[in-house]
Hints:
The protein contains eight helices and five strands.
Amino acid sequence: MRVFTICLVLALSTLSLSAQKTFKEGKHYEVVSSQKTAQPVVTEFFSLYCGHCFQFEPIMDTLAVSLIDGAKFEKSHVNYLPRDNEETQMGIVKAFLAMQDLGMQKELTAQFFAAIHVKGIEIDSVDDIKQIFLANDVSEEKFKALFNDPDLIKRATTMSKLWEEKQVTNVPTLVVNGIYKIDTRSVRSLQELIDLTNYLLAK
């Protein structure tokens, strides 16, 4: 797995041969909705339980700072992992939104990824999720208040449905402007991914 990660990062870090590449629907991307976002945005559908998402974090970080002016990058947590554990599936989506509300998305995302994919810690319950917050100086009272907040629960319900609406079948997956789903298998370098993403942002 480590060898795969290194090879993947090296491959995606190679400059594309042509910045003028012609991108084609059906090969590089597909249209998954007719409802375009009001502002240009790239949405990464991901899961903290996903090993590939963990490996792709450096790539996503570079992509996020390489977008055309006025575009934003956001993450949307899917709710189908861990398998056969509905409470934790929704719990991790709520936890991700709680990170955002705390202004700790980057820090706590890194902590969850490290716990699950580096340290091998099993996070199979809401209590397990809570322990990561507690270990990062979030009080139990604050965690419970956020976790049980009606507005956060409503947003989590909306987020948990979004991946199906955008026809996401695996993670990580990038959707641009709410309508273009990128086929990352079609790109050969990080620069090509950036070029494709910005091409779709400008459409």
